[in-house]
Specification:
410 residues; single chain; two-stranded antiparallel ribbon; alpha+beta
Length: 410
């Protein structure tokens, strides 16, 4: 399974476990926790500026706005939004991944058809990917009170959806007036979901239509086809060719036809019941999976990105100081941090370049030309040496940065 750069463990839990490591104890005494506090404060300040910028760009197209909605700067907003998503290690859901989700076998016993042509804009972003195990009971399991069959499936930890519906005129022209979302569909809609099955992306769309799977169609049509073929062979075909007919009374024919019709109706009603159960399950599922809408999505994305950057910086800085005599290269430090995360039950692809780069920008790393070339490329196998600035000096540098944020002259 593809590993994401996302570290799903909360920041406070990373700090708690990292600071409990025996080799980190001397750094705690020197003031490592204070370095962490300063990193959090500076990242939070930077994040507030990013949030305000996004809110200004999004305001006019926010469906929850009390003012007239204008969709003029969608591209500018999405471009700025994606910059923040990259910082938080979000990735695009590719066309191939989306198509696999549409074509794949759903966890639910029914298929959904997404009317994609109703969108002017539709984008999906994913954050993290894990394997889950759940018990999915069928109708018989529910009747008997059984837990159901245990299945394993992959899910995205988080999914962001951006959609912009076409206007009412388009729906009228296409003869889809009943599908027109009307006024509530205006604006650029942002949605944030958690724990979305990879093969069930369609459940997060607002414009889906339940459809029969081939198996459901077979249950309804196959008995009818078989029965009609039998009637044709035994009764109608002999009449056509002039041969002897089977001894079938009219009452028997009516009974047979009624039985076939009853079976088909039962199969159809079972499908209808399954559809109703599914729609209720989806509504309940979305209630618990939905995390934020519209402007609230911006707040959560900024918060997640802020947490991610602090976790990366803290892990990188701590291990460089604690294992300064190991002779780490970028590659070995990256592997060391990933191994530590794996010990905590987190399997992530740590982004060492971003972490080192951020620390160097704040003056907590002193990079040499051997580590990073003039063209910006990283040399993964060059020994780093003692590039991490000691804690006391790091605190002084961070304090200077903080003091310089609001250095007004009177």
């Amino acid at each position: 399974m593809h590993k994401s750069h996302f570290i799903p463990m909360p920041r406070h839990e990373v700090k708690k476990r990292l600071f409990a490591e025996p080799q980190v104890a001397p750094l705690i005494e020197e003031g490592l926790e204070s370095v962490c506090t300063m990193l959090e404060a500076l990242d939070h300040h930077s994040s507030l500026s990013e949030l305000e910028r996004l809110k200004v760009l999004y305001c006019a197209m926010d469906p929850d706005s009390e003012s007239q909605i204008e969709i003029a700067e969608v591209d500018s907003f999405i471009s700025a939004f994606e910059e923040v998503l990259v910082d938080g290690n979000w990735e695009h859901v590719t066309d191939e991944e989306f198509q696999l989700a549409m074509d794949g076998e759903s966890l639910f016993p029914i298929s959904m058809d997404v009317r994609l042509d109703e969108f002017v804009t539709m984008k999906l972003y994913k954050l993290g990917r894990d394997e889950m195990t759940e018990n999915l009971p069928n109708t018989l399991d529910n009747l008997l009170g059984r837990p159901g069959k245990e299945i394993k499936f992959e899910m995205y930890n988080r999914v962001i959806q951006i959609i912009h519906f076409k206007d009412s005129k388009w729906f009228m022209e296409q003869g889809r007036k009943n599908h027109d979302p009307g006024k509530i569909g205006e604006g650029l809609h942002l949605r944030l979901f958690k724990n979305v099955p990879v093969e069930d992306l369609e459940i997060i769309f607002p414009n889906t239509t339940p459809k029969m799977r081939p198996m459901d169609k077979a249950k309804i049509s196959l008995p009818l086809v078989i029965g009609l073929v039998m009637l044709f062979q035994q009764y109608l075909l002999p009449i056509i060719v002039g041969g002897p007919t089977a001894d079938l009374s009219q009452a028997l024919l009516v009974a047979l036809a009624s039985a076939l019709g009853s079976y088909a109706m039962k199969a159809y009603m079972t499908y209808r019941k399954t559809k109703e159960t599914y729609m209720a399950a989806v509504a309940k599922d979305l209630y618990f999976k939905g995390q934020a809408n519209n402007q609230a999505v911006l707040n959560m994305v900024i918060d997640l990105a802020e947490e991610q950057e602090v976790k990366e910086s803290l892990l990188c800085y701590t291990f460089l100081l604690a294992e300064a005599d190991v002779g780490h290269t970028l590659a070995s430090l990256d592997a060391r941090i990933e191994a530590w995360l794996a010990e905590q039950g987190v399997h992530a692809d740590f982004e060492i370049r971003d972490a080192i780069g951020d620390l160097a920008e704040m003056g907590l790393m002193e990079l040499t030309g051997d580590v990073r070339s003039d063209d910006g490329s990283w040399n993964m196998d060059v020994p780093l040496g003692h590039i991490a600035v000691p804690i006391k000096e790091s605190l002084a540098r961070l304090d200077d940065i903080w003091d310089g944020l609001y250095n007004f002259e009177h």
